[in-house]
Amino acid sequence: MKWIAIAALFTIIAVPIAAQTSAAPRPMPAYPGVPTDLARAAAAFDLAQVKGDGAALESLLADDYLLVNSQDKREDKAQFIADYTAKGFSMEPFAIDDQVIKVWSDGAVLGGAVTMKGMSEGKPYSVRIRFSDIWAKRGGKWQVIYTHANRVVAN
């Protein structure tokens, strides 16, 4: 898997927080002002991506999930999970810059700008993206139904 494809994925992710020389990484993203159940789901989604937790991703992504990645390619739920659980793939913990939070009774947009870092196919990657995750509350459960990610051009 090419690092660019992984970088295209995230969805939700962030500016890595653990510098190579840092002794203690900063905490994962927080979601201020977001309903508690949605904040828990969003934090679990972030952590599932970092840990490559396929079972958690399976639960947190809607069956009709769609990602439009930074290469303008479409990926479904199965493809997203396969990418994040692939052997040789890792992603560092992260934080979200320029956070976007819009919430209504049964939906939300959570997003921001992130720098994703990690390993893919034995090679390090680092890419800056802006993303939006669309969440829907269905049957009392929050799930990501759509993600859009685009590369941020360096200034």
Q: What is the oligomeric state here? A: single chain
> C-alpha Rg, in Å?
14 Å
Topology, number of strands: 9
Helix content: 10-25%
Structural class by secondary-structure content: alpha+beta
Shape: globular
Average of the residue pLDDT scores: 85
Major β-sheet profile: 7 strands, mixed
| Number of separate helices | 4
Our measurement of the CA-to-CA distance between the termini, rounded to an integer number of angstroms, reads: 28 Å
- Could you list the spans in which at least 5 consecutive residues all have pLDDT below 50? 1-24
**Could you state the order of secondary-structure elements as H and E?**
HEHHEEHEEEEEE
Q: Per DSSP, what share of the residues sits in E-state strands of 2 or more residues?
A: 35-45%
Set out the fold topology.
Elements: H1 3-9, E1 15-16, H2 36-51, H3 54-60, E2 61-68, E3 74-76, H4 77-84, E4 90-91, E5 94-95, E6 97-104, E7 107-120, E8 123-138, E9 141-151
Parallel strand pairs: 2-9
Antiparallel strand pairs: 1-5, 2-3, 4-7, 6-7, 7-8, 8-9
Helix pairs in contact: 2-3
What can you tell me about this protein's structure?
With 155 residues, the protein is an alpha+beta fold. The protein is built from 4 helices and 9 strands. Strands 2, 3, 4, 6, 7, 8 and 9 form a 7-stranded mixed β-sheet that branches. Strand 7 (107-120) and strand 8 form a beta hairpin. The relative contact order is 0.26.
Give a quick precis of the structure:
With 155 residues, the protein is of the alpha+beta class. 25% of the residues lie in helices and 43% in strands.
